[in-house]
Amino acid sequence: MIKQIIVGKCSSAMQDDFKKAGKTPPAGMVDETCGCIADGYSKGQSLDQAKATCVKQSTAKYNP
């Protein structure tokens, strides 16, 4: 349940950020990043720690 809430809020926030920037996120990036954040949180990381780790990984993967 918590994971679904985190993924939902994260997805909305990422879509809004891309929209404000006038860009479209690469296919799979939002789902992968938000799933990573939810998994990190469920493993005991704070949301900020999980976000920092997952955004870094996602950026490296989708923006080579």
Textual characterization of the structure:
This protein has 64 residues and is an all-alpha fold. The protein has one domain (2-62). It is 77% helix and 0% strand. Helix 1 runs antiparallel to helix 2 (29-42) and helix 2 (29-42) packs antiparallel against helix 3. The longest helix is centred in the N-terminal third of the chain and has 19 residues, at 2-20. The model has no long low-confidence stretch (mean pLDDT 96).
N-end to C-end Cα span = 33 Å
Specify the helix fraction band: over 70%
Rounded mean pLDDT is: 96
How many structural domains are formed by the residues?
1
Summarize this, please?
The protein is mainly alpha-helical and 64 residues long. Helices cover 77% and strands 0% of the residues.
Strand and helix map with partners:
Layout (H helix, E strand, L loop, with lengths): L1 H19 L8 H14 L4 H16 L2
Could you name the key traits of this structure?
single chain, 64 residues, mainly alpha, 3 helices, 0% strand
